[in-house]
């Protein structure tokens, strides 16, 4: 392997703070440390010193810690310089490291090196970024679990199952005289079924993990004046949307990032769905429909006193029916299961029934009962799992038709798709995209 360059960056957040850290990684760390310190550093020892520039002028005083490879974040030699958290001082300290032979790190380059050194797999490396940017306690815990390898372990378990299947099928192909018996064996069917079930469960869990990271996209829709904007305000805990008794008040799409019981939601208020007379409202309704098509969950708001309107809701999107203005209709806050989904009675005005709604939102975000152990995931992972799932189904069909060669190929491709998640297959093209999203210094 060619000698890597030594990289350096300010690792702490921009802006004034009590303490700031410049991080350095690569083969030059020891020499930089020795120059700053005036003698070789002791491993993992906090040296107190004055950082000086090339002319001997004092930049700052602080701590220097040298982490020799491989026991460091990146797996390479790492140097941490901790000074006062002044952006100007830290910039000078960084400059000094660059003068001593380091080059500025790209975003995510420290974590990329940790991946290349085998300290983390790809899913874990992505969890670092998700942990840093997590917007809720639940998202923090989920990212922590992925970083600990929870997600990767489950991927590996499915990969092992797939490998065993491949061995079986390849063995059958190697002994043509036995092939028919081998491929038709009930034991093979059963194993295929088990792997498919594990993969389906993992896919569902990863979908919940992705919603935890991205936040749930909840669209509020319904007839004019049903109380959609009032509901948004009630959930947000403040008056964000305009509420009046005039039908057609909301015309544009209003997107609010709100936190409900520790989960991040994007709540989308939309124009009331009706045959609108004027073009502005018509455009609002067109946008409302576009939002509906990409919702994770639709809150269909009904006025409990009015006849149930025809709502053009898209197929395949989960819908929760909300009978609003229960304070006027006199209905008690309660829930009913009906063929078209769950119905809740509530009042955006009095707040009655809102706790039940919050509970449903938690469940939709993957935080309901039985959700302990959620791990973070990304669209990239969910996509790879979906491809693996489809390939496995094809392999099953081909085995059914005795097409062993084709089945073996699909199983191999399914395994490759899963390998993309953890980075065990050649993932060069992916790396730039994944680590480019990081902040510098990570
Ligand atoms: N009594 C009572 N009035 C409500 C309730 N929710 C909304 N309202 C009233 O119903 C009227 C319409 O509320 P909005 O929140 O503007 O309804 P909307 O669905 O956003 O209406 P458009 O944006 O025009 O489609 C307002 O006068 C609200 O104060 C409720 O739970 N109880
Ligand atoms: K209104
Ligand atoms: Mg409105």
UniProtKB/TrEMBL annotation:
Keywords: Cytoplasm, GTP-binding, Hydrolase, Magnesium, Metal-binding, Nucleotide-binding, Potassium, tRNA processing. Binds 1 potassium ion per subunit. SUPFAM superfamilies: P-loop containing nucleoside triphosphate hydrolases, TrmE connector domain. K(+) binds at residues 225, 244, 246, 249. Its main location: cytoplasm. The gene is mnmE. It comes from Arenimonas malthae CC-JY-1. This is tRNA modification GTPase MnmE. One of its GO terms (molecular function) is GTPase activity.
């Amino acid at each position: 392997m060619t000698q890597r360059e030594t990289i350096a960056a300010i690792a702490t957040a921009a802006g004034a703070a009590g303490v700031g850290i410049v991080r350095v990684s690569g083969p030059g760390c020891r020499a930089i440390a020795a120059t700053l310190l005036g003698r070789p550093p002791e491993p993992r020892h906090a040296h107190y010193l004055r950082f000086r520039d090339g002319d001997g002028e004092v930049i700052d005083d602080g701590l220097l810690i040298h982490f020799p490879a491989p026991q460091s974040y990146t797996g390479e030699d790492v140097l941490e310089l901790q000074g006062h958290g002044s952006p100007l001082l830290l910039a000078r300290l960084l400059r000094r490291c660059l003068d001593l032979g380091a080059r500025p790190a790209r975003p995510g380059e420290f974590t990329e090196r940790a991946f290349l050194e085998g300290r983390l797999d790809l899913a874990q490396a992505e969890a670092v970024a998700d942990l840093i940017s997590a917007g809720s306690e639940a998202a923090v815990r989920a990212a922590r679990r992925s970083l600990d390898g929870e997600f990767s372990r489950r991927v590996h378990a499915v990969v092992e199952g797939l490998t065993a299947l491949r061995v079986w099928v390849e063995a059958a192909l190697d002994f043509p005289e036995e092939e028919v018996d081998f491929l038709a064996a009930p034991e093979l069917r059963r194993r295929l079924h088990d792997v498919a079930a594990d993969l389906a469960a993992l896919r569902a869990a990863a979908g919940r993990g992705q919603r935890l990271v991205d936040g749930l996209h909840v669209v509020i829709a319904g007839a004019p004046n049903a109380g959609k904007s009032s509901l948004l305000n009630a959930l947000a805990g403040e008056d964000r949307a305009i509420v009046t008794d005039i039908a057609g008040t909301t015309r544009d799409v209003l997107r609010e990032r709100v936190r409900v019981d520790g989960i991040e939601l994007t709540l989308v208020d939309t124009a009331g769905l009706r045959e609108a007379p004027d073009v502005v409202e018509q455009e609002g309704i067109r946008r409302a429909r576009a939002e509906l098509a990409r919702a994770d969950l639709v809150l269909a708001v009904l006025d409990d006193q009015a006849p149930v309107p025809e709502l053009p809701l898209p197929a395949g999107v989960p819908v929760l029916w909300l009978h609003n203005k229960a304070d006027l209709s006199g209905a008690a806050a309660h829930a009913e299961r009906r063929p078209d989904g769950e119905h809740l009675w509530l009042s955006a005005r009095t707040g009655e029934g809102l706790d039940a709604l919050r509970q449903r939102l938690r469940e939709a975000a993957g935080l309901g009962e039985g959700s302990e152990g959620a791990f973070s995931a990304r669209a990239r992972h969910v996509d790879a799992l979906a491809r693996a799932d489809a390939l496995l189904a094809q392999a099953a069909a081909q085995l059914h038709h005795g097409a062993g060669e084709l089945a073996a190929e699909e199983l191999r491709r399914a395994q490759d798709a899963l390998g993309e998640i953890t980075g065990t297959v050649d993932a060069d093209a992916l790396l730039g995209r994944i680590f480019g999203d990081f902040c510098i210094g990570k």
